[in-house]
């Protein structure tokens, strides 16, 4: 497909190179928007709280998670997580657009598909 889109007229992501790291295949692609460093910098080096966007994880997933006690109490409720201003982060409190601070619809569609 890459050979058919030499003029970048079709929505095809172009692979730059690939390599193996610790037995994992890593693939690098063209930069289509903000990179992770710039996104983190834009958020004052605060990571994204995925529960704010996606809600609570499935209970079966939590039961198998070895680090669950760090983030959830014995009832399965999230421990108090605050942002840099001390405000509580609550599950399902943000939509993806406000979490990544981007209005780029293609980027938002891509992220939401990745998170399904």
What does this structure look like?
This protein has 116 residues and is an alpha+beta fold. Helix content is 32%, strand content 11%. It contains six helices and two strands. The protein has a two-stranded antiparallel sheet. The longest helix is centred in the C-terminal third of the chain and has 10 residues, at 105-114.
Number of domains: 1
The amount of beta strand, in percent, is 5-15%
Terminal CA distance: 25 Å
As a whole number of angstroms, the C-alpha radius of gyration is 18 Å
Strand order of the largest sheet: 1-2
Give the key terms.
116 residues, alpha+beta, two-stranded antiparallel sheet, 6 helices, 32% helix, transferase, ATP binding, Dual specificity tyrosine-phosphorylation-regulated kinase 4-like isoform X1, kinase
Task: Offer a quick outline of the entry.
InterPro entries: Kinase-like_dom_sf (IPR011009), Ser_Thr_dual-spec_kinase (IPR050494). By secondary structure, the protein is of the alpha+beta class. Helices cover 32% and strands 11% of the residues.
